[in-house]
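Q: Convert this sequence to structure tokens.
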Amino acid sequence: MSTRPGRASRITTNVALLLGALLTSLPFFWMIFSSVKPRKESVAHPPSLLPKHPTLEFFGQLFTQLNFGQYLANTLVVVAIGFVGMFLMAMAGYAFAKFRFKGRGVMFATVLATMMIPAQVTMIPTYLILNSVGLTNTLLGIALPTLVGAFSIFLFRQFMTTIPDEVLEAARIDGAGELRIFVSIVLPMSKPILAVQTVLTFIAGWNSFLWPLVVAGDQSRYTLSVGLALLNQQISTNPSLQMAGAAVMVVPILIVFIVFQRHIVQGFTLSGLK
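A:
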């Protein structure tokens, strides 16, 4: 008798969660379906969710007429440079977690203190520095300021403190160098936090807007987010084309999240153990 109220409660909870998920995902499905609607259907009243005559015309227009192919290539380069930074942040987190050296606590506190500084405060000095070395209006100049972040170093450090010191000492006794230990032992044991950082790094590079807009003086250096904003300013009467551009921005992020979702919660949980 006592199991029936519990079962009813679970069913009610599941139904409520399902309804919430459907309401939350409705704008996403509206974007996807609108991106394959002919323009006549996208401006029709009353609007309809499903397209009657689906077409991929506007996706082709993005890449053949509106230079989205160049924007996509630029964004992928920025993301790739960001993954180099993720490797560097993993090394920094490993050093703070497993090495004992003078001033470690002060240095780590200084790194964390940088999280309180808004990016807008350092934007002008960063621009002046990059301009002095000729890196403005370059993809490297777009990627460099976000190459290393205090929050990511903190996550790596917190996770790597959970790696047993005995494993590392055994590798040192066997003659392994620190770089080999890091690559062959620490990184494979850090898959959950690497999955978290992969998603965060990808999102940061993929969605970068303000800094590329400031640094890139040439339209050929724009990223996808800047190109999408430019598209919305240039074309205001074609919702299907705008939705197609939005889909190009959003769908890859969802794919990356789905691929790594199994490790994300585990990575955040283990990062907070110590």
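The chain is about 75% helix and 0% strand.
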